[in-house]
Amino acid sequence: MMQKHKPVGNPLPKGQLILILALGLLLSGYLITLISNYHHSQEELELAAIEQLRLQTESRAAELAYFFSDATSSLSTLSESRELSIYFANKALKMSMRYGLEANLISLRERLMSAVEEQHQKGHAIFSRIVFIAEQGELLADTGAAPATAQIDWATFLTPETQGAQLLSDLGDIPFLVSLPYFFKGKFKGQLLAWVSLQSMARHLATLDPVLQDAIYSWDGRVLAAGDRWNDLLPEDSEAASNLAIMSHGETLTFAVNAENGVDGALAVKVLLPSIDYYLVTLYAQDKVLSHAIS
């Protein structure tokens, strides 16, 4: 006959079993709460990081606004140059091109050239070209190449009724200009126009933080200038890429990036540039979003 084994030990009382079960449920609930709080804290941290990055993008937009301010200030200084006043003083004296005015124009062009060069020496070429247009729409001095002026109606840029410099955008093939009317002894005598290099501005932003990549967008979604590594952080999906163009001010967008670039994804932040109808879009590598916002 098979021998029956007696149970070893005594069974726990029913009350203890209920207590153990209750403690287990409490511990499980506590762990679930911890995990939930952790994920909630992570979400809050990510939202705070995104807000911080949005503020950083607005700060970078303010840096570009400084560029525009510097450009208008430089053009205003140029309007007070001795070369301009001498030319119009001699013209008022009926001096001919042969006996003085031609030499004055050469000096004026050299002064415009030096204004472009001065910006290069500062480390950022704000101006790529400067011209002076006479009051009848005639091009008097130009730092650019002559063939580039063939299709431009210079008279359309004259603004004798305005005072001070103006920022001009959305000019077709000319992305951005600073325009300033010139007055000699209270009378309108012409217009200074300066081509602003948006590409130089985008590259300048890259020197402030090489981790980030920026692009300047027109109001209708065209990329006017971008950092040298902008393409490395562009969306892999064409639809996501097109969304960058239609984002609103302050909006953010996360998307996948081509894995060959060594980045899993990126975050885009878009803000309106002060004073002009352009936007700044800054791309952040997603794996650096938290660390970059905290730093």
Keywords, separated by commas or semicolons:
5-stranded antiparallel β-sheet, Beta-Lactamase, 6 helices, 23% strand, single chain, 295 residues, alpha+beta
Task: Give the oligomeric state of the chains in this entry, treating copies of one chain as homo and distinct chains as hetero.
Answer: single chain
Give the count of helical stretches: 6
Order of strands across the main sheet:
2-1-5-4-3
Contiguous low-pLDDT stretches (5 residues minimum) are: none
Q: What is the H-and-E element order?
A: HHHEEEEEHEEHEEEH
What would the CATH topology of the domain at 81-145 and 155-196 be?
Beta-Lactamase
Walk me through what this model shows.
- Among the domains are: 81-145 and 155-196, Beta-Lactamase; 209-294, 2-Layer Sandwich (Beta-Lactamase).
- It has 6 helices and 10 strands, in the order αααβββββαββαβββα.
- Helix 2 (82-92) packs antiparallel against helix 3.
- The longest helix is centred in the first third of the chain and has 66 residues, at 14-79.
- The relative contact order is 0.12.
- It is rod-shaped and about 120 Å long.
- A hairpin with a 2-residue loop joins strand 3 (166-171) and strand 4 (174-184).
- It has a 5-stranded antiparallel β-sheet. A 5-stranded antiparallel β-sheet has the order 7-6-10-9-8, sandwiched between helices.
- The chain is 43% helix and 23% strand.
- With 295 residues, it is an alpha+beta fold.
